[in-house]
Amino acid sequence: MADNIGWEKILATALVASFFTACVTEPVKAWLKRRQFRRCLYFEIMKNYGALTGQIKMAEHDPEMKNGIGQRFAMGFNRIAYDIMLKDAPAFYSLGYYEVYWIELLYRDFEHVIHGCFDPEETRLRCAGYVAHSVLNNLKNRQMSKRLMFSVSPEWMKEDLRQNLPLTDYIDIDPPTLRERLLRRCDRLQYRIWRNFYPPRT
User: Fold this and answer.
1) In the chain, what is the greatest distance between 2 CA atoms, to the nearest angstrom?
2) What is the number of structural domains in the chain?
């Protein structure tokens, strides 16, 4: 009888441990993995945006640098985090349909700057400017997380975002909802704080 009671306790303990693992531990591990993947992806997008805007500024200051912007951007372009997330489809698509859609579109645009056919070649610079502006549009219109982008960005990138995000327009297909109007009020307050506490460098 005592042996039966002992086995019942062991079985009950094992069941509780399995339940805890299935219901708590595994979801937490999946959430942490997804969170880390997302941070790495945003960090890579930030680096690509920085490399692209660097090439654009160089071409704007030196007309001779207008040609070859695609080849030079290719040397700084990375898609390691993006490819890793594509291989882990559950983690990638758990980001949400809209965020995934805009991130996929953004990487296709990055690739187009490098591999696209442009005639004349100088039009590649206009394409690069459009793609760089797309990053700002995604952040301004909440297709990507502004908070996360700031958290993975060094100070020079934060300064770029603080300077350019207030100048980026909202894109409205439908009239903004009450929630969106409230968020835009928060944006205006944030921009005012940026102007007061983070003035642009001269």
Assistant:
1) 91
2) 1
Asked, for residue 188, whether it belongs to a domain, the answer is no
Please report whether residue 170 resides in a domain. yes
Q: Helices in the chain by DSSP H: which ranges?
A: 2-20, 26-61, 69-76, 80-87, 89-93, 97-115, 123-140, 146-152, 155-164, 178-197
Whether residue 114 contacts residue 77, with contact meaning beta carbons closer than 8 Å, is answered with yes
The boundaries of the domain holding residue 113 are 31-175
Query: Is residue 117 in a domain?
Result: yes
Of 80, 178, 72, give the one whose Cα is nearest residue 128: 72
Kindly report, residue by residue over 180-202, the tens digit of the pLDDT: 999 999 999 999 999 999 887 75
Report CA torsion sign: 111, 100, 165, 148.
negative
DSSP state of 145: -
Distance CA 53, CA 9 (A): 64
Q: Closest Cα partner for 131 from 97, 154, 108, 150?
A: 108
DSSP structural state of residue 88: S
Nearest C-alpha neighbor of 130 from the set 110, 153, 146, 115 = 110
Residue for token pair 């090439």: 55
In a domain, 190, yes or no: no
pTM exceeds 0.70, yes or no: yes
Distance, CA of 90 to CA of 152 (rounded, Å):
23
